[in-house]
Design goal:
Layout lengths: L7 H22 L6 H14 L3 E5 L2 H11 L7 E4 L6 H8 L3 E4 L22 E5 L10 H11 L2 E5 L7 E2 L2 E2 L6 E5 L13 E5 L2 H10 L22 H11 L2 H19 L5 E2 L7 E2 L5 E5 L2 H10 L29 H9 E4 L8 H14 L1
Parallel strand pairs: 2-3, 2-4, 4-5, 5-8
Antiparallel strand pairs: 1-9, 6-7, 6-11, 8-9, 10-12, 12-13
The structure holds pyridoxal-5'-phosphate.
The site of pyridoxal-5'-phosphate has 15 residues, from helix 3 and helix 4.
Length: about 375
């Protein structure tokens, strides 16, 4: 049996009729920048997240950059985030010329450890970017409390957590901004790049709407600020509109599959399954477990046709592009250990029930 990392062809079959209809209408209209499909998606996406405004942008990376730009964060400012994330989080901060300040993760959740944040706050700290990694929400109660106490902005990196909830609220609706990615393999993926910024603040929404469009959203050819061309494509919005109504079901599938994995893997002493805190809805963008003999397990699974992966093999503070920050081995021990000793097992909404069972049986075989 082969277990792929994702099955986008099977997903396409579920949305084909509506997606094709919408794509055809866009192609026939000849209107490819913003327009009705983007507006409809922004409305539907804001509703899904429970935020007042959503703006479609070109990628998740740009969503983060635009949020930082809207908050006027730049040179001389510090921004706190986690070293255990996709590099884009750090790239966006670095692009503004603000200083990246890392805080180690909690090894149970893989997310930034809120208990370690306050000691990294200085007079220059302007914002915290919590990353809801693998679809598990960060502790937003504690992070928002710290932010309010120190008058900091919060930008949630929700690239892996569309639809995840902390308490009753979806992630992305807590901070000043929530930033989402529609990279094809994300929880809701476009057929190309895409992203969104959500906010409850009308002024900030207007600002992002302008900044994504050369600071000239109404085509007056007067450009007030230095900005970007970072709009969500109309064709991508058409795909996303066709997917939007499926998200809840797909996330329920993910949760069911994760529960399946939990049950199958719990008995293996060399594996530690993800935590499942009460009152939280995590959406398992990845099903990531602590394991012993990681690299051998990874190559064994690959040989058996199982597309397991490592997210991420190198923490941000060891990346060549962030070398100038001067961090050293041992600075963030939990993040460093996670990069060495975790593995992500295939999990996607169209998986068949026999697939997790097959993966678990192969893992059992490896350790026996
Ligand atoms: C995917 C991802 C991003 C960047 O999104 P793109 O759409 O690829 O630019 C940012 N942060 C995290 C945590 C991600 O997983």
């Amino acid at each position: 049996m082969k277990v792929p990392p994702i099955n986008l062809a099977a997903e396409y079959r579920e949305i084909k009729q509506e997606a094709n209809k919408r794509l055809k209408a866009v192609l026939e209209s000849g209107l490819f920048i913003l327009g009705e499909e983007v507006r409809e998606f922004e409305e539907g996406f804001a509703k899904l997240i429970g935020a007042k405004h959503a703006l479609g942008v070109a990628s998740g990376t740009d969503a983060l950059l635009l949020a930082l730009m809207a908050l006027e964060i730049g040179s001389g400012d510090e921004v706190i985030t986690t070293p255990h994330t996709y590099v884009a989080t750090g790239m966006a901060i670095a692009r503004t010329c603000a200083q990246l300040v890392f805080v180690d993760i909690n090894p149970e959740t893989f997310n930034i450890d809120p208990d370690l944040i306050e000691r990294k706050i200085t007079k220059r700290t302007k914002a915290i970017i919590p990353v809801h990694l693998y679809g598990l929400p960060c502790d937003m109660t504690q992070i928002m409390k710290i932010a309010r106490k120190h008058n900091l902005r919060v930008i949630e990196d929700c690239a892996q957590a569309t639809g995840a909830k902390w308490g009753r609220k979806a992630v992305g609706s807590f901070g000043d901004f929530g930033c989402f990615s529609f990279y094809p393999t994300k929880i809701i993926g476009a057929y190309g790049d895409g992203g969104a910024v959500v906010t409850n603040n009308a002024k900030l929404a207007e600002l992002v709407s302008s900044l994504r469009n050369q600071s000239d959203p109404h085509k007056t050819y007067i450009h007030g600020r230095i900005a970007l061309n970072s709009r969500l494509d109309t064709l991508q919005a058409a795909i996303l509109n066709a997917k939007l109504k499926h998200i809840s079901q797909w996330n329920r599938n993910r949760i069911r599959l994760a529960e399946n994995y939990d049950r199958l893997l719990k008995k293996i002493p060399q594996i530690r399954v993800p935590v499942r805190p009460e009152e939280i809805m995590q959406v398992y963008h990845q099903y990531t477990v602590w394991v012993s003999r990681r690299d051998s397990l990874l190559s064994f699974l690959k040989k058996e046709g199982i597309a397991a992966g490592v997210y991420y093999p190198i923490p941000l503070h060891f990346q060549p592009c962030f070398k100038h920050l001067g961090y050293r081995k041992g600075d963030f021990p939990h993040a460093e250990e996670a990069c060495q000793n975790t593995i992500s097992l295939p999990l996607f909404p169209q998986m068949t029930p026999d697939q997790p069972a097959y993966v678990a049986s192969k893992i059992k075989q490896f350790y026996s």
